[in-house]
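Dear H.,

Thanks for agreeing to be a second pair of eyes. The structure we're designing against is below in token form, covering all 489 positions.
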């Protein structure tokens, strides 16, 4: 009997290990320049520990360097240029059709409980109301069992998402809305502490909902939870001690930040940029503490040691580099994002320089849990790299953005980055010029490289088109096959 009990215990342990909980953390506007594993001025000890236990992808790019298209790519496994996506920037009246957005459905079909807590930003406005009676029906069609859609800090008292209800109950909603509205009008990069305490800050509230959900889930069914935080996205309103955690004068700016530059009518210099950076890093430190709470919740659930974890972002932040703020550009600070994958006993530790896409997290999760990927996805599983079977899974990573022709497109291979905007082409050697300070597009000695990168992008576009004619058989062939089948009987 003792042997039988031991065998059953071992079987249960193996079954649990084969069905890992999945945690995906998405930060918003997180520049790859500011990761604790590369920058000693950053304070993210909990995410650094996860990175040390997993694989860091040093060349991960979003399919578009702004929120909505990048997030829709993760949900759909498609590029903006694909039918079924089509979003080349943030859209005013857009929502993904469930038949084109199967990420959570693929995970749900594999037997996992699915949840997204925090910012979704897959749709703008009430566009989904044209097909669904309410948001719950929309999320259910996407394959989600649990959703708490929190767009971020509110700049108005309208709407009733869970965070606004939290603020309303505490008599804080009007105060927060007025503060945020004033920040947005004046400029969201003004570094100033939040008007609420740490415990009432939106990311802390979002994390609390996620922790509660993890605690409430039955332990005999695996959970896949995506926790999407708003920080370190502006406004630069780190709360409480996070607002004073970093001394601006002790921070270092990369050489690509000019001594003086003009942004949104503001004359900025290194001193002002460092003040913004100090608050930004404070918000990032808060994200790290939120991750720590999620880890503790999985430990209490008893699944942390076997959990699959992905930490990434929807796009980066320029933070003064090349004289720019925010995102929407193809420079490293904006189009590249941190990506860490951790799965004990399955993934190697270390770093990969292979060009990958943030949307690759979707098929990686599906393959890891033994699910079946919906056909027609252009995102690729990173398991071959993370397990050490391959060095790379694609020749280039791309990014694309634009609201008018000609649309802007970028390609990055293992060394060079190329892009074309409305006016001209750019080429950078990231091996010798990681800060992208020396454009080689006009250099005669790099003409061959420019042509090669242009051809790589063209080949990629020709290879990643949605083809609704795939598998079509002419009528004559179908009739012949039907007759042959009859005779075969």
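And this is the sequence the design step returned. I haven't edited it by hand at all.
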């Amino acid at each position: 009997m003792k042997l039988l009990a031991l065998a059953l215990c071992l079987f249960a342990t193996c079954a649990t290990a084969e069905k890992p909980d999945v945690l995906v953390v998405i930060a918003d506007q997180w520049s790859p320049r500011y990761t604790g594993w590369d920058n000693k001025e950053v304070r993210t000890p909990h995410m650094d520990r996860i990175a040390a236990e997993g694989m860091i992808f040093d060349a991960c790019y979003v399919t578009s360097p702004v929120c909505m298209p990048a997030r829709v790519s993760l949900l759909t496994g498609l590029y903006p240029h694909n039918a079924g996506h089509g979003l080349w920037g943030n859209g005013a009246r857009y929502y993904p059709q469930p038949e084109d957005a199967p990420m959570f459905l693929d995970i749900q079909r594999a037997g996992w409980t699915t949840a997204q807590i925090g910012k979704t930003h897959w749709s703008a406005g009430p566009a989904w109301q044209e097909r669904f009676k309410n948001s719950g029906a929309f999320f259910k069609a996407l394959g989600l069992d649990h959703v708490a859609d929190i767009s971020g800090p509110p700049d108005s008292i309208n709407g009733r998402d869970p965070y606004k209800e939290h603020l309303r109950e505490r008599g804080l909603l009007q105060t927060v809305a007025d503060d945020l509205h004033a920040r947005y009008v004046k400029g969201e990069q003004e570094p100033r502490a939040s008007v609420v305490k740490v415990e009432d800050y939106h990311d802390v509230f979002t994390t609390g909902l996620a922790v509660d959900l993890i605690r409430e889930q039955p332990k005999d069914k695996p959970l896949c939870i995506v926790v999407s935080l708003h920080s370190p996205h502006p406004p630069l309103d780190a709360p409480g001690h996070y607002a004073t955690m970093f001394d601006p004068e002790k921070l270092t700016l990369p050489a690509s930040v000019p001594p003086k530059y003009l942004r949104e009518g503001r004359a900025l210099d290194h001193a002002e940029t460092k003040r913004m950076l100090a608050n930004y890093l404070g918000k990032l430190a808060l994200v790290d503490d939120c991750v720590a709470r999620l880890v503790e919740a999985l430990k209490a659930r008893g699944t942390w040691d076997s959990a699959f974890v992905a930490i990434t972002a929807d796009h980066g932040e320029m933070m003064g580099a090349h004289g720019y703020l925010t995102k929407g550009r193809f420079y490293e600070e904006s189009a590249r994002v941190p990506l860490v994958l951790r799965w004990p006993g399955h993934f190697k530790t270390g770093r990969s320089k292979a060009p990958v896409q943030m949307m690759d997290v979707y098929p990686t999760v599906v393959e890891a849990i033994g699910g079946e990927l919906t056909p027609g996805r252009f995102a690729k599983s990173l398991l071959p790299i993370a397990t050490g079977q391959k060095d790379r899974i694609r020749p280039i990573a791309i990014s694309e953005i634009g609201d008018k022709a000609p649309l802007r497109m970028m390609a990055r291979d293992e060394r060079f980055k190329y892009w074309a905007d409305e006016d001209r082409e750019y080429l950078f050697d990231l091996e010798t010029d990681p800060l992208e300070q020396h454009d080689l597009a006009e250099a005669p000695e790099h003409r061959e490289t420019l042509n090669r990168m242009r051809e790589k992008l063209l080949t990629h576009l020709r290879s990643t088109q949605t083809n609704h004619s795939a598998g079509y058989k002419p009528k004559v062939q179908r009739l012949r096959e039907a007759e042959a089948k009859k005779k075969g009987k």
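Two observations from my side: The longest helix spans residues 270-301. Confidence is low (pLDDT under 50) at residues 1-16.

Warmly,
E.
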